[in-house]
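A note on notation is needed here, since sequence and fold are reported together in a single record. The reader may check this reading against the record printed directly beneath this paragraph.
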Amino acid sequence: MNKLIQNLLTISIGMSIACSQQEPEFKLPDVKPPVAAVKPFEITAKHGHKRVDNYYWLNQREDQEVIDYLNAENAYLDTMMAHTKGFQEDLFKEMRSRIKEDDSSVPYKLGDYYYYSRYVEGGEYPIYARKKESLDAKEEIVMDGNELGKGKSYLNFFTSVSEDHNLAAIIMDTVGRNFYTVGIKDLRTGEMLPDKIENIRSSAVWANDNKSFYYSIPDPVTLRNFQVKRHILGEDSSKDEIIFEEKDQTLSCGVGKTKSKEYIIIGSGRTDASYAMFLEADKPGDPKLIAPLKDNVQYDVDHAGGDKFYIYTNQDAVNYKLVEAPVSNPSPSNWKDVIPNRSDIFLENVDYFKSFMAVQETKEGLAKIRIIKYQDKSEHELEFGEPAYTASLGYNPAFDTEVVRYSYTSMTTPNSVYDYNMQNRDKILMKEQPVLGDFNKENYQTERVMVTARDGKKIPMSLVYRKDKFKKDGSMPGWVYAYGSYGYSMDASFSSTRLSLLDRGFVYAIAHIRGGQEMGGDWYEDGKMMNKKNTFYDFIDCSKWLQENNYVAKDKLFASGGSAGGLLMGAVLNMAPEVYKGVISAVAFVDVVTTMMDETIPLTTFEWLEWGNPNIQEQYEYMLSYSPYDNVEAKNYPHILATTGLHDSQVQYWEPAKWVAKLRTLKTDDNKLFLYTNMDAGHGGASGRFESLKELAREYAFVFDILEIKE
């Protein structure tokens, strides 16, 4: 064993024993953090600019020196936080105690079956099950995740059932890199068929013959999905027919099925543009094009019966619109508006039924659900009563029904599932997420405020706090979270684990910054590419607003974000480190320029229109001006906890590792700087509903320790 790791582990073990013996006073050991070797590596852009990366060598995943360094960082973290181990365990138990362990989802009807998932007490993974014709019928197990996960350090799996309900594709990842293996289970006998397809990157989309399905696979180098194949049961998967191959390296393809079950849709796209093809699900043939790829135009296709497609698109519609087109000739010249573009309303989602259309929209950052009747075009809107909330259309596989399922949640209201009758307008609460213990949503208050950013834009921010703990006097600890990329909107939703913060007096905020789409399509455009810094400025301005308006103390504000939100954390740390007491940056995309220059790894070519093309000097220089890794300086930084996963295929582990190594060398303060690498997981962290809580307990303990919160 590496001597550094051995020494750190010895100290950690000794401290854990000391903590368990409840010594009256704890004193941090005099332990120096790991120091990564400096190995200068010159990187030259195509336009000639040169940079030197001292830690480029950390990208060698199989190099023992790299593994030793990551293990040393983990051991250092364990050592320096060993005195919190008991508290971490208490936090884990506290968060777990709120979870109803033998819980189940609301069943949905599909054909003659009611499908649902459930958990058993102590079980880490879901059990997918069904009952035929009645919920009182005998349960049939589609797949037991706890059996599937035995002996595995990681498991992520889901299922896809054939149209005749006799077969189920079991799609699972046991490493965490989002490479899935497909097996086929005969639901009549319970036996697994010999068919096995490895390294797919999608679900299995069944054809209507119930003996074949479609799936997409990644390019072995860049990992972008570049082929759609069709597998016929009983045949050698190595001979599966290639239905479509995307040759443009900036595009990634996928496959799905329309609501009517009549068509297979193959789509291909990047962050700014997409196109789609269709083929009949009853008699597969060659895919037919809907509309060709066009810069800055996205569209999705669905079919709800008859001779027309519904197409959701931003063509000449920054806030998206819905059009229809004949199946016989669906080219853009035949597109006819069904829901036109509106300047003040963002069209998010549409679901189709035999007699109705359910429309999910956003106005001023708040969700709306509207019901439209085909026959007479009459419509009505569902009402919601809180200042900050999230409402969204649920999973509605049935077509010939008057009932639409939707979800509702707020920062004080647990996720609730409703069935709404679109004809008579009756609403039934099917389930509210149970929160065990003494939880009472009346004890908590949510607010929605509009923060004026430095350029005058109004930024929505959702807040929640515990009423009897809160004082608007500038003394409260605070936690602010955001994402701000890819047009993903961050919902003001409920979290039972967040109660562990609120019950200790924290004010929790979600900043709906530019780069998402909370305020419409322009909100996204104004936070990407050459406007990316707006994302960071918005977050800083929201953070300062919390302090200046006495919601949060100026020396007690913490921030967190993951993936592209980890980029956000890295950027604001360089731009305004004095605003934050501490930052948690998870699976962080912090080495923007180097990653965008490397066309052999994921998160590159087909994302150039999100971040920039480094081969274009102006875009290169703009990315370089904010890239967190490139802008680390010799100055004071707040406390930092960075996390990553060794098998992450979306943001490679070496980005956070390099960032921490550089911070250690340059920062001028004595604040904590930790790197945690999950050596068994990928982008999503630990699998299982309880193992992931341990990682969250570590993050909370990191923050509580800084604030000297002991229990």
Summary: Confidence is low (pLDDT under 50) at residues 1-26.
